[in-house]
Amino acid sequence: MGKGLSSMKLSGQVRKMKVEPEAPVQYFLDLNKESHSLNSFIGSNLNIKWEGIITCVECGRKTKKSYDQGYCFVCSRDLPENEMCSFRPELCDHENGNEAAKEFWRTYCNIDHFVYLSLTSGVKVGITRHYNIPDRWIDQGAVKGLIIAKVPERILSGKIEVAVSKNFADKTNWRKMLKSEYEDLNLLEYREKAHELFPEDLKCYALENEDIQELVYPVESVPEKITSHNLDKNPEFEDKLTGIKGQYLIFETRVINVRKYSGYHLEFNFLGVDE
């Protein structure tokens, strides 16, 4: 990958990478809301530099610190998408909030949600809006995913997730995920176990016939010892890009979580292939 490429420089406000679920997954750098294909640059040297500026991904104002992956403090505090519902969906209460919260509920909460199992560093349970599959799994770096329930609103998916997570993980070990250190477990068997844990009044939403979806990532190699680069401490580095998985760019000597730096203004200088 990357043979014969000339250098290219891109800069702007970064957001999480966009994806297309092909084999392997196709990744796109999102700068100033414009997409730039990344896969062909695997094998190239890449210089990344933080320009010292952070702007809110919602309102655009400058901020000294990024909150909730890209927001200024005010938007992090006041926007419905950043309230408790985002990380405690079983407590979703937007329906009873102000008009902005109610509109958010109508658009994003009072719609079909999936409960799923995914294989990342192990089997985990999660939820997502119906249109986020398989993108949600790709963001996690999952190699397999299986939908196990479909519910008509977010709060119900949250209640199922809470019940199932008492016996299943709901977090990913990101280092193991990047190094593909996992057992090749049968998600169909885990589906049966998960269905048994559903609250009685929600078992009617269980799905029995969904197929396992498998995902392949564009990764040539992963460093033996994985360290995550911190742009706040070291705003510039150069390294050889060797792969992409989840929301991580993987290099010969480090990795960097692109989503973590949403709102940061970064310069990407692709220096061509290291022959």
Descriptive tags:
275 residues, alpha+beta, 2 domains, four-stranded antiparallel beta sheet, 6 helices
Summary of the model, kept short:
By secondary structure, the chain is of the alpha+beta class. The chain is 18% helix and 31% strand.
What is this structure's SSE topology?
Elements lengths: L7 E13 L5 E6 L2 E4 L6 E11 L18 H6 L20 H11 L3 E7 L3 E7 L5 H6 L3 E8 L2 H11 L9 H5 L8 H11 L15 E2 L21 E10 L2 E4 L3 E3 L6 E10 L2
Antiparallel strand pairs: 1-2, 1-12, 2-3, 4-9, 4-12, 5-6, 5-7, 7-8, 9-10, 10-11
Structure report:
The chain has 275 residues and is an alpha+beta fold. The protein is built from six helices and twelve strands. The N and C termini lie close together (12 Å). The chain has two domains: 119 residues, no CATH class; 140 residues, no CATH class. The strands form two sheets. It has an eight-stranded antiparallel beta sheet with strand order 3-2-1-12-4-9-10-11. The mean pLDDT is 93.
Query: How many independent structural domains?
Result: 2
Describe the global form: globular
Put simply, the count of helices is: 6
Low-confidence stretches are none
Query: How much helical structure, as a percent, in the residues?
Result: 10-25%
Major pleated sheet: 8 strands, antiparallel
Strand content: 25-35%
**Number of β-strand runs:** 12
Widest β-sheet, arrangement of strands: 3-2-1-12-4-9-10-11
* CA distance, first residue to last residue: 12 Å
User: How much is the average pLDDT?
Assistant: 93
N-to-C series of helices and strands:
EEEEHHEEHEHHHEEEEE
C-alpha Rg, in Å?
20 Å
Query: In terms of structural class, how would the helical and strand content be classed?
Result: alpha+beta
